[in-house]
Design brief:
about 260 residues, Rossmann fold, 2 domains, 4-stranded parallel beta sheet, 12 helices
Length: about 260
Amino acid sequence: MMHSRGRARFGILVPFTNSNLEPDMTLLRPQGVSLHFARMGGYDQDEIPDVDQMHGLGATDLDEPLRLLQGVQPNVILYGCTSATLTHGPAFDRKMAETIKAESGAETVTAAGALVHALYTLGVERIGLASPYVPAINDMAIDFLAQTGIKTVARSEVKVTLDNYGQGDMDPDVVFALARAADHPDAQALVLSCTDMRSIETISRLEKAVGKPVISSNQAMMFQAMQFAKISEPLQGYGRLLDGTWSSPENAPKRQYL
């Protein structure tokens, strides 16, 4: 079948208040790939995105947004919320990917799983974590990563509790400072978790500042989706993960997130 832009179609599930995932994916879009988005609910836009809200989003019924997304017959589906599965744990995250794939026939990427996949690809075992989440979700994120063999040696949190729109409104300079605060001599990489945080625009600058890889939710999702689509050319300007400088036989992933 000839695809709408010649190579592949990526279908992306987006939390309905998220304003940055679509622009980020447009920035990262490989040549010949078309992007198709569907909004998903399951949380209250006027409530703080705390554990209960994000747990509810992760458990919400995806039948309708998936049905609409399947109208374009995507090759890969990306589940675009990190905290929705971080709050449930790795087993839930993997099961969600398996269920979406079984229902759609498309290879499936989750934001949380993509972070782990990226860290495994780079051979990273110790990280600094930065996010706009409430502290309780950061606790769960650290536990999630620990269950996959990734140790968090430093964390950085926002000083105020942000609502759904506050997370997306953070300026890239604020994101940069938040990430720098998560750096630690023992951290092999920095992780910026949240699909609605403007991390993409800071990755290259951050890597130059800290001298180590920087992984974000949206960058990691695009990396894994490209692998599923067998697209291997480097993307410049968005970190080592996508520019291919990590790639060599000795850097082959030692572990798989299955």
